[in-house]
Every structure is written in structure tokens, then in C-alpha cells.
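Annotated sample (chain length 339).
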Amino acid sequence: MLTYLFLHLNKWKKRPFLYVLLFTFPLLATVILYPLLKNTADETAVPVAIVDQDDSGYSETILERIGNSERIRFTVMDESEAEEAVRKGSMEAAFVLEDGLESALNEGDVDDVITWIRADESLFDVYAKEAVGAEVMRLAMSARAGLRVEQEGGSFEEAFDYSEQYWEPEPLFQMSFSERSPENQAVEAPKLESWQVLIMQVFFLYGWVLAIFFLRAVQDDEREGRLQRIELVQQTKVNYFISHFLLFGIVGAGSFLLGTSGLFYITGTERELVLAWLGRGVVVMAVTLFVTWCLFMGAGRKRWVVPVLVLVALASFMLTVSDTGFTGLWPHCLLEKGG
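Output written by the structure step:
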């Protein structure tokens, strides 16, 4: 069996760069494209201008907290610059933290502390409004607590800080949602982002198709008479087919797992999700490659078999992604059900 492995290695040595590139392509694509996709996502965040006319501790706190938003990109400007940016459309909207904001909030007054500048074409600035408004109300509630305690003879600062601690690291009063699997109501179901699942399906398709094209080596050996000579010398072709099946599985599953593992590592996916998805991916890929091999051998290893198997792989991917309803037993559908 090792003899056949060395025969394949000798073939690959003739064009090592090509074969290494084909095998590691999903991993390389992840490493190269993920930073670009991440930057694109950052650039698609809603651009919003913020004007700080109060220049106080409260306004600095608001700027610091809203600066961590992923969906909104806040840019500090002066008022005239912000109005011009909104008018030209380079900023979706602008929010002005008015002079006297801190003193107003300390007195429990939340009216007229924020000015919202927007154009008629603005659509997504409501998300920024919610973010800014939430931080103002948070400070206002803490200030009201401090004011009430101060009226009772206590310390405003201590009461304010005490109220703020209920917002760190997460707000005290918030809804907690737990997603569970329909098949098992008692266990939380691991869940990836939809774009991660799609990339996994693409990697699965790539590994499957790469393994299918590897079957052409068997057809070449049979067409050029090498397989007949092996049978003549060894009186059997069993070892040849077993070794080729193992290499067929390594090529397909290895490429898929290499790319998927790289995706999980770069995106910092939780260990629980990694184990769940990789485990299911290995099982689905192993079954898929086994069935593919059986179809290839059962069809007599004819030349038309490889193109047909490639079409089956593409159909599995396209029908699953398009969700046409005819997806029940397609490998990509079984992989997706892991989420």
C-alpha cells in the first residue's frame, strides 16, 4: 500500500506548488480574504458625526462608550463641519451634545441636551439615535439617583457611582434570550454566524470536488494500462483501490478541515462551536466521500462519471443555499443542520 502512496508522491513532486496550492486553497483564501472582508464590514458601518459642545466629563463618557459600536462609525466634528457633512451625504446624521449637558443631567433634566441633525434621505441614523439616547439616559438615571440621595443628606458622587456599577459589565435590567434546539429543548444549540456557515459550505464543496477530480488518476492508470500491469504482477487490485480510496479521503476531507479550522481560528470561534461543527463536518464529509467512491466504482469508472459527480456536488450546494425545499438528504443540507 505504501508503494502506491510513493507513486502518487512522485507524481506530485513534478508540480509540487500546484498540488500544495490546490490542497491548501481554502486556508489561504481564509487568511487572505478575511481581513479584507472585515475591513469592508467596518467601512459599511453607518457614518455619524458627533459634536461635543459641552466638553465635560459626561460628554467624554458618552463619546467613549458609543465609540465601541460595531454598526455605527462615530466621527467627532465641529457643528458647522457636521452640518456640511450631513448635507453632502458623507454623514448619515449628526448629534450635538449641547453646552450645559452635564449640569442639566445632574439636575434630572434630559430635555434639549442633544440636537439631532439629519437629512430627508437619512435612513439608518435611528440606530445612532438609540445608541446616543441610551447613554444619555444611563447618565441621567445615575444622576437622578445621586440627586435623590444628596437631598436626603448623602453623597451625590457615591450614589452616582453606586448606580453606575449596575451597568457594568452589562446592564442589570435587560432581557436574557437563550436559543435552544427544537430537537432538544433542554440543551442550548451551538450557532455560527450565517456567513460562517456559508463559507463552510463553500469549503465543503471545494473539498468534495477536489477529491472527485483526484479520481481521474484511477481512470488514467486504467486507460494507460498501469492498473492491468499491477494486477498482472500482484494478482490483485485490492491494495491499489484501498490506497487510492484513502488518498481520495485525505485530499477531500483534509482540504475541507484545513480551511474550516483556519476560519474558526481567525474568527476566534468558541471552542464549543468548533468541536460541534468540525465533528459534524468530519462525519458528513466521510459519508459523502464514501458514497461518492461507491458511485464511481459502481459505474465502472467511466469517463463520464467524474463530470456527473461534480454536477451532483454543485447541485447539493446550490439547492441547499437557495433553500428550494428539495434539500433533505443533500450533504450540504446535512452539514447545515449542524447549526
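Annotation: The CA atoms of residues 142 and 160 lie 5 Å apart.
Annotation: The first strand starts at residue 46 and ends at 52.
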